[in-house]
Amino acid sequence: MKILLVNYRYFISGGPEKYMFNIKKILEEHGHEVIPFSVHSNKNVETEYAKYFVEPIGGRDVTYFEEYKKTPKSIWQMMTRSIYSFEVKKAIQKEIKDTKPDLVYIIHFVNKLSPSVIRGAKQMKVPVILRLSDYFLLCPRFDFLCGTDICEDCLTKGYRSCIKKRCVKNSLAASFIRVFSMKIHQLLHIYKDIDAFITPSRYLKNKLVENGFSKAKIHCIPTFTTSRTQISKPIIGEYGLYFGRIAVEKGVDTVVKAYEKLPDHKVKIMGDDTTDEALHLKKYIQEKNLKNIEFIGFKTGAELEDVIKNSRFTLIPSIWYDNLPNTALESFQYSKPVIASNIGSLPELVVDGYNGYLFNPYNIDEMIEKIKILDDDEKVQKMGANSLHRLEKKFSPNKHYELLIKIINDIIKNSKNKPA
Fold first, then answer.
1. Cα distance between residue 404 and residue 105, in whole Å
2. Rounded to whole angstroms, how far apart are CA atoms 197 and 200?
């Protein structure tokens, strides 16, 4: 089988890209041919299919919105890539014509490729599966946050709420473009072209069904993780660990405030420490002269895994409806208990008192209480073993592949049986 894999980045940037490369590897191990379609970047993994990729907004050394130079060309690209890009449609149709895939599997396209990848594929009579890693079909900001508060006003009062509050990048223009694009996509009925939606969590699936999406088209397939190095006997470490994006919605400030009150406990914070939120928190730590909180920067490969292996437990203090984060699965892989916010999909991962603990978002005292419970080595060891067991039972690569390939086969079969 030949599968065209679509994502707006072809390098590791976050959870969607980790999933993309992992599923590509597994599909190939099962004898399928996987062909990428993406955006050019100087960070991209090399591929012979790069000749089909489209040019990025603002240049090949630019990744994020804040880095774009606001030239007439980049502004036009931002608008078309948000709403509908004929340039992207032409590019993906060229690749489909040349490579003749059986199916298109889309990971992420918003604001960088546009949903023209969906219609472009359907016009070539190729079935399409869309995997969702956030709430972009329902929320202009993708995360149901307004500032640091959960907000669903766009669902109950309409998208004008987003424009009024300048939810997207705190910008009136960016908010208007995003809302306008969502309205256009609704008018074009573009998501009706999707043959199946894949959600990593039941929470996201239920949100979509509650808001009018066809339950029959939505399939919950939990994600998975894979190790690059040998996993040895579990280690009971001496420090707590937060790892992942250091952004407001991730609630890392709760970790800092908790460990401020726990001077005898150590925590490491691993991730890009040049973000606005990271710089804010590092300044706070310096001003308070906190010696037990260490930012160690972004790590990859064996270095990343060593930091996880040698931790005592990990922390996921999200304040948004977090959607089955990879950090939980990577923690389970190394037999680590997880202390997580009781929000979004996180209770699907952490069973309170079994493989970790749940606490209410923002609640510093509750987090401290859970950290202190895990001073007990025996409890850490038992909960860590439960984490690994839960991973193997519910979040294994083989389980994910079995569920996904069944859906892919069914969709290809159905598409061939449809009248021309």
1. 11
2. 10
Per-residue DSSP letter, 97? H
Per the structure block, which two tokens stand in for 266?
Answer: 């150590």
If you ran DSSP here, which 8-state letter would residue 4 be given?
Answer: E
Count of residues making up the chain:
420
Beta 128-131 vs 145-146: how paired, if at all? unpaired
Token duo for residue 379: 């409890």
> pLDDT digits over 320-365, tens only?
999 999 899 999 999 999 999 999 999 999 999 999 999 999 999 9
Question: What single letter denotes the amino acid at residue 257?
Answer: K
C-alpha dist (Å) from residue 73 to 68, 69, 108: 11, 10, 23
Top-level CATH class of 239-394? Answer: alpha beta
CATH 3.50.50.60 fits 2-133+195-224+397-417, yes or no: no
Record the pTM: 0.90
**Which tens digit of pLDDT belongs to each residue from 226-270?**
765 566 689 999 999 999 999 999 999 999 999 999 999 999 999
Fold agreement (2-133+195-224+397-417, 239-394) = yes
Per-domain residue ranges of the chain: 2-133+195-224+397-417, 239-394
Short-list 144, 131, 139, 152, CA closest to 217: 131
Hey, CA dihedral for 233, 239, 240, 245, is it positive or negative?
Answer: negative
Smallest Cα–Cα separation from 331: which of 248, 387, 250, 398?
387
